[in-house]
């Protein structure tokens, strides 16, 4: 409809009426620039189709299979028993008097409750997070990184990793015109980054991952991207997601070292999104934390390079997305800035306490000798092994499809295959004002009920097309999904050739 | 220390060193403008003193009594049994097989779990919140407002009320210079508002509550404030907190009507912070929701005035702050803007699911005939009656102190008494660069261990001084606290006279 000027008063059906105060024309324009493909139009259409199916509308399929989002429990992954026992005990401490829970679960719950105001997870915690949880996080980081020290004062508990990432970007982004803050992000990227940068009005500085070399980072590409950005903005930070989302690669130690040296030389604040740190499947691959490598490079780097690292309860073997737990560690942050960070997080009072409790359990899981250890290890290993199997399966089957090329899913929870699209389909998509891979994914959804996210939602090299699919559906469904994608791709290619 | 230019490289102890990328000079300046007194310097000092006490440092008191924040559980309020039973069941559904929980608790848990992906509170929910929870919220609002219809599509679950308020402000705030968005907030105010406005770079437009008339809103003051603001910015929204924080008043129906007519006439988007809707204690006072009054004014208003109303699990009789549950309802929002709102909330994935579950229980509590109803009502009534008693007690005792004048605590959880400060103390405070009531509260803390928040953290009329104290401490501690405040105030007045 046409937008009326703000002060027009109209009469509709005899009732006095006026235009809105808040309209698409008067609202904050930076919000309009925000996009988030993982929950974008494809997913909205998928939800609509599910409703149509329930209402009896005939479709060429009987259910929607969602592989659009890294939501493990929604795909049938079972929670870790120990974690949920402790959370139940924290929620309803009367259960501490029952004999149904193992002693280690009770002990963890008692310890967490003792650290809560009034012994209740219903009290606000300190804004930075519960003290003892931050201490446990620090010890976890030290173990993970072979003894590199971690100060609990540098650990901030967060509402999922997204919250920490946005908070750090808020501190960094300012300036106008050519001195506007630029933030380097990988392409393809996880769209939280582009969305947050759009909202903050920062300049998004793209560096491209090398698809030919299994989505690795090239130093020359970082240099190109930075040099170009410096012509029109003030690049201050470099974001890395490792293991990669949406691309599923695991960066080598050498690559991480290169990135750190680059950041040091070019004076960039490093942001390392390491939420998939347990999700490493490929042989020869290993997770190296940015912090560990930073300290191995010696004091010239470890005393200087500013780094924020993010983790979460939502991924790895836990998959506890709904609790919105997470933490960030800041390293070499200017003390005055850190005071500002602490003040900033206090405005939102505290991260959800059940999520903090869960984060504690992740970093302080049952130890050998404790009654829950065996079950915990069995569950953890089973989940990670199954994910490794599904990663392999996905890569193998996709690579049997002519016109689809899929890099190994070395880690994380996604494959991001390259799809060849016939010229005719690209033209038809463009005529509809759609990205060609959006056109492809929308057709896939309508014809097969499979919900994937087009590569254009993550960014990709011009002229290339991809989709992101999670490896999370149960194996039988994953096989159906992959078979359907294969069949669809062949049909689609024929149809538009 | 002096701030070096960014590109200076120094050598400290023989190690190559450089200035930080992110310093107090290069960081986002809007973050520096953020202040949040409720967790400000007084509270930080209180935490330090607690530590000193634990370490055996001698003080003229043995414990810190915190009355700085509306954190009921931390002050010993017990959670509602039914809520926690359902939360335990949701966390560890194995408990559904046990005989220890009442059937209504099990039914609620089953219903919530069925609405979760994979039957797990560990799955992401829809970004707007779980469907059935939003439906329950809508029915609750309809009951509360005597049948005024509520569309669940207009309900957004949030991470506490703060999250909803900041999200709405994000949509509203834009423009530069004289067309920069202004947002009207009461003075005194809850500092989330000033903090969010500072962070977004909006113009804070103050209107003063009338302390002489029990902190009521005066139409003439709203008009004055708006007229002045229009000279230098574009005022678009009017925020009201009712029942009031920090001032504890309950607005009359007439006052709300006046505000709505004012907003309609002046074309302002209304934001009603109604998180204390069950916290009404004074005789003759009643909570009137802005939505209900809006609809009672007829279609000229109910079809036009844009309103967002906020609620939370953190206050009322629940006091479940740690779960970060909440909702907002938007009324008469432009559909295009609402689509932008839905997109914006999707970037942060979803509010914490345990908090959503808790919000559901609040709006769908045990009904007559259900096994938990009697206990629930007993617990709810006991908590609210106790708060009413403590509200009265606080007002009465404070008003016995010469130099302290306290309005009735009609609702919410705070008293905000006016304190007369001797000229000499004001001079001494100013010499130290402190607000006079900050000087007073800091001294109170050091000498008595009582932690209150100075009025200057909320805003107040020039030349007046206040503090905010919660009425939440257990009655015996509240009496000690009030006696100590009385004694301190007399001593302080003498000392500086």
From TrEMBL, chains A, B:
GO terms for cellular component: cytoplasm
Q: Show where the Aminotransferase class I/classII large domain sits.
A: 99-483
| Record's keyword annotation contains Transferase | yes
Q: Quickly give the catalysed reaction.
A: L-alanine + 2-oxoglutarate = pyruvate + L-glutamate
A single BP term in Gene Ontology: L-alanine catabolic process
Alphabetized GO MF terms: L-alanine:2-oxoglutarate aminotransferase activity; pyridoxal phosphate binding
Q: Of which family is this protein a member?
A: Belongs to the class-I pyridoxal-phosphate-dependent aminotransferase family. Alanine aminotransferase subfamily.
The protein's job, in short, is: Catalyzes the reversible transamination between alanine and 2-oxoglutarate to form pyruvate and glutamate.
Protein name, as recorded: alanine transaminase
